[in-house]
């Protein structure tokens, strides 16, 4: 919220510089030197505004936008590297951007599990683990109980954890056919090895955390983890469009049970308000 306050204050001061002479606040400017009208001088102490080059009354096009972007990126890196901070934020990419899990081709239930994992809604409320029957479910317990690092074939010491480690490596654009022919290993072969296993692992976690649900259809689904691989191999074209602005507002207003049956996320996304703490992990979603 503090970041949003600073951003709006800098935008107000920037707009104030371009208002016509007959605007009310422009006509009142001479009175702002009076101590009784201290709001504007106080607002002009905005840290973001003071960081802009002089003269601030005639900033070049895009200067404020770049300053805001740099500030958000700096704050995000600080939050990710904080020793005591948001676990979900620190699990995302260091580069701010739309998380690929919001638009990469996959089934609705696959996307739901990944989003709920990123948001902390999976595993959700701690309960008795049905896999070992002696410990309550949590992110750390499930990663150890299911031996996730070994199953995914990644280093157990990878940061922040084996699941988010792979999610942070998802591609942000579809590789060209020429690059696949020249050197297919970095994309197609790598994800052909890891993605189906990750999709099955997320299904196992969902099954453990929701023992009352029937996952028979999902466990026998031949499409599990296949849509993304087909897209990666350029068998699905064109590349999915960037997310639109209709769905994530619904995500932030949903609870765990709603998300368990969230089936309308395919090929959709939204611009997440920066003052929404519950949506922060998806902004970096980012992850980057």
From TrEMBL:
Bias (Polar residues): 245-257
Domain of life: Eukaryota
Ranges of Low complexity composition bias in the record: 265-281
Name of the featured protein: Uncharacterized protein
Annotated stretches, region: Disordered: 233-288
């Amino acid at each position: 919220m503090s970041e949003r306050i600073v951003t709006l204050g800098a935008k107000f001061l920037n707009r104030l510089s371009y208002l016509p002479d007959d605007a009310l606040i422009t006509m009142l400017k001479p009175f702002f030197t009076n101590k009784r009208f201290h709001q504007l001088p106080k607002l002009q102490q905005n840290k973001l505004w003071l960081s802009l080059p002089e003269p601030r009354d005639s900033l070049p096009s895009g200067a404020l936008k770049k300053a805001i972007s740099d500030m958000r990126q700096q704050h995000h890196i600080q939050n990710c590297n904080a020793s005591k901070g948001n676990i979900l934020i620190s699990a995302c990419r260091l580069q701010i951007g739309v998380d690929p899990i919001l638009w990469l081709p996959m089934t609705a239930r696959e996307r739901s599990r990944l989003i709920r994992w990123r948001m902390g809604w999976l595993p959700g409320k701690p309960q008795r683990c049905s896999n070992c029957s002696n410990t309550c479910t949590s992110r750390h317990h499930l990663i150890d109980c299911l031996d996730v690092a070994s199953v995914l074939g990644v280093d157990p010491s990878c940061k922040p954890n084996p699941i988010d480690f792979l999610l942070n490596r998802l591609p942000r654009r579809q590789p060209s056919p020429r690059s696949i022919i020249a050197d297919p290993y970095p994309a197609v072969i790598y994800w052909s090895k890891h993605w189906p296993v990750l999709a099955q692992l997320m299904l196992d976690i969902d099954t453990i955390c929701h023992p009352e649900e029937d996952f028979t259809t999902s466990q026998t689904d031949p499409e599990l983890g296949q849509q993304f691989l087909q897209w990666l191999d350029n068998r699905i074209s064109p590349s999915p469009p960037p997310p639109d602005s209709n769905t994530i507002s619904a995500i932030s207003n949903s609870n765990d049970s709603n998300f368990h049956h969230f089936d309308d996320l395919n090929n959709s996304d939204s611009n997440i308000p920066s003052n929404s703490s519950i949506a922060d992990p998806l902004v970096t979603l980012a992850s980057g």
